[in-house]
Structures are given as C-alpha cells and as structure tokens.
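== Sequence and structure of one protein ==
=== Format: two labelled lines per protein ===
==== Data for this protein ====
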Amino acid sequence: MKDSQNKSRWPMFLSLGLLGICVIGYFTVPSIAHFFDEAWRVLASGDQQKIQAWVSNFGAWGPPVLVIAMVAQMFLIIVPTIALMVVSILAYGPLWGSLIILLSVFSASSVGYFIGSFLGKGRVERIIGQKTEKKVSKFLEDYSFWAVIITRLNPFLSNDAISFVGGILRMGYWKFIAATLVGIAPLTLFIAILGKSTDSLKTGLLWGSIISLLLFLGYVWWDKRRQT
C-alpha cells in the first residue's frame, strides 16, 4: 500500500521539484533571472509575432521554452493558452507543433493538478479567485471526465482553473490527464489546419467554441432529463 501511494505521488514531487529549481535559479543565477524577466515581457505583451520571433531565437531549445511558457502562463492571466498553441504551429509546423502542444498541455495540466492537490482549496482560491473555484468545482463534481474534456475543447473556458480544481478534488490523476488529452486533441488539430490563416482561425475558433458549448448543453439537458 505504501509503495502504491509513493508511486502515485511521484509526478507531484517532480512538478514541485522543477518549480523549486526555477525559483531558486531565478534568485541565485543572473542569467536565469534575465531569461525569466525577458520571457515575462514577451509573453505578457500578447503580441503573437513577437512571441514567435522570440521562440525562433532558441533553435533546438524552442520546444522546451514553449513547454515552460505553457506552464508559466497559468500564473500570467493575460497570456492566453491559445496564443502559445498557435505559435507552436507557426514555428514548427502542423506535425511537430501539434506534438509540442500536447506535451505542453500535459506538463501544464500536471503542474496545475499537483499544485491544487498540494496547496489545497484555500491557497488555490488566491490564484484563481473564490468565485471561479466554486463554479469549476461544481462543474467538475457534476460531470467529472466530461467537464475536463469540454473545458479543454473550448479555448474560451478556464483551462487553468480546471487543472487546479482537479487537484483540489483529488480527481484520479490519469483519468484527469486522459480527459485533458482527449479534449485538447481536436482543438490542436483544428489549429494545425487553420493556424496559418489568422482570419480563418478566429472564425473557426469562434464557431468551434459555440458548437462545443451547444453539444455540451445538449448533454447536460439530456443528463438532467435522464435523472428525473
């Protein structure tokens, strides 16, 4: 039993360890501090072309930078996940860009999940707000696996909050990750197809979000009717 518990917690220890290393490095190594300061300025600018140019400067280190940026954006509210996903496709093409997106979302979701699990409800509310925490908790408690899928599928819903709350509610980690990847895959494919056309991408994302919400509302209606 003890070995099983230790194995189930290793991703949490790894996530917290990496976070701790970044924090220590920031305050002790000037070059690391400079990197994070520059990353903050570029990512917080919200300028897609600036972000793409910045990523291109890293060459082979570009993919790890995008993964780290996806994790960091959980705490940079003004940096949309969708922007980093588009940059991945633009910088590395549909195939490799999509793989980078999946890895980035997996990493960010894992870190968010274990932060929620480790810090608990009170501290996480300071990050995402009490109102958001309550809404997402109710949503996740009612629809569990499907709640995660629809949240990942729709780029305008709170992707980061669902990760934190999933950890708070102790939703099964691998169940949570499976729902995350199932939900993010169609959006990734969508961006890979339309990513090179900004106008098409904006229109497609809008209609895709509306359709996904309508499908989910239909599912909610059917579920409530089935229970009565």
